[in-house]
């Protein structure tokens, strides 16, 4: 005899596993610090690559001016300026990534917790 | 209003039943429109500018995730740019790379916004975007809408300057890159549009989140008015490419679309039909779970309000049969229909 309540619960769980469960499980499988640090690491690499791309376009754009003034330019102070801009941009971007990572982790943990609660309910049948 | 709600329920029911077919069809149409727009505006590579390739690519997009559609649209644009001038392709490539690596990678859900915004620009109704995203999105949607605006303006710039870009052939790579970057960064109208849209989006978002009656309606109308005023000021100061009459009609249309959108998005949980398989110790289950629709036409309640007791007493004191026809008529006049809607509100129809 099929237990209807059990089927409903199992359907809900299976549907969750098919959709949000996959995504949330991948997040909640990590420890909190591991997840956040891995996200920050990715953002750091992405941000650095983006910054290099912008610098590349800037150099191309000002190529003639730079080549003309290269002997008169204080390369050290120019380098420092670029480094400051890089640090500020990365700081803002990493802060944004950090907040996003914390939000996503907490959401995933909450969701997975209620999934486990439903699994426990299923065990009673 | 009641008809709108019933229509919404009908659409919801049809969508939840046939979601498996409707989604690919919608994606196919979106991809078809997007790629056709790209080809019609910057179709410099003749091989790509063919209906067969657009159809095949759109068909591919209909089965794959939205991000793939964005990648295919980006590739189309890059290849057309390459055919016009390789330097253009470099600048566009860097732009796309930055968009993807900095933001779209983190919020892949909003890829569709980047795709739709240029289409709305082409249809001359970009004004709907900040209102729609204020209703449906979050404040961070400003970033995706801005990306869409950048792409739309860039397409227009390339279209308008194609001849000068191709005539720059002898000037060298760096000069052409400068021309393209100048066109992108020196476009004041683009930055002004980004600022106006960002303000309107956040305004609509803040108002619709307020716990006040008719928050969504107030948000849409305020957003529309604010957008019109801001665009008008920007037109006078910076000089946008929009015509004033077009702007007014566009803003009115945006408010109407916003109000229409409200009907379909406010307090509605679009559940889908689920096809799941699982097993326990005794059975294998192949379940198709179809969501229940909360309000149907049959749930309309007709409530008759009886005349007050004193009038009933008067009625009783009259001789039997006298004036029965007139009292029936007056009670029919006073009869009131109350319609209970999905939002928990009730509407009285006299």
Summarize the helices and strands and which ones pair or pack.
The complex is a heterodimer of chains A (125) and B (350).
Chain A: H1 4-28, H2 32-61, H3 63-69, H4 75-124
Chain B: H1 2-42, H2 51-63, H3 66-84, H4 86-104, H5 111-122, H6 128-136, H7 141-160, H8 162-167, H9 173-185, H10 188-209, H11 215-237, H12 244-265, E1 274-279, E2 284-289, E3 301-303, H13 309-317, H14 324-334, E4 336-340, E5 346-349
Antiparallel strand pairs in B: 1-2, 3-4, 4-5
Descriptive keywords:
heterodimer; A: 125 residues; mainly alpha; 4 helices; 0% strand; rod-shaped; B: 350 residues; 3-stranded antiparallel β-sheet; two-stranded antiparallel ribbon; 14 helices; 68% helix; globular; disordered C terminus
Count all strands of chain A and give the number.
0
Number of helices of chain A: 4
The secondary-structure element order of chain A is HHHH
Described by its quaternary structure, the protein is heterodimer
Beta-strand content of chain B: 5-15%
> Judging from the principal axes of the Cα atoms, what is the shape of chain B?
globular
Number of strands of chain B: 5
**Helix coverage percent of chain B:** 55-70%
Poorly predicted runs of chain B: 317-350
How many structural domains of chain A?
1
The whole-angstrom Rg of chain B is 28 Å
User: Which band does the percent of strand residues of chain A land in?
Assistant: under 5%
**Poorly predicted regions of chain A:** none
Q: Which sheet architecture does the biggest sheet of chain A show? A: none
Strand arrangement across the biggest beta sheet of chain B? 3-4-5
**Mean pLDDT score of chain B, rounded?**
77
Q: Which structural class should the secondary elements of chain A be placed in? A: mainly alpha
Q: How many alpha or pi helices of chain B?
A: 14
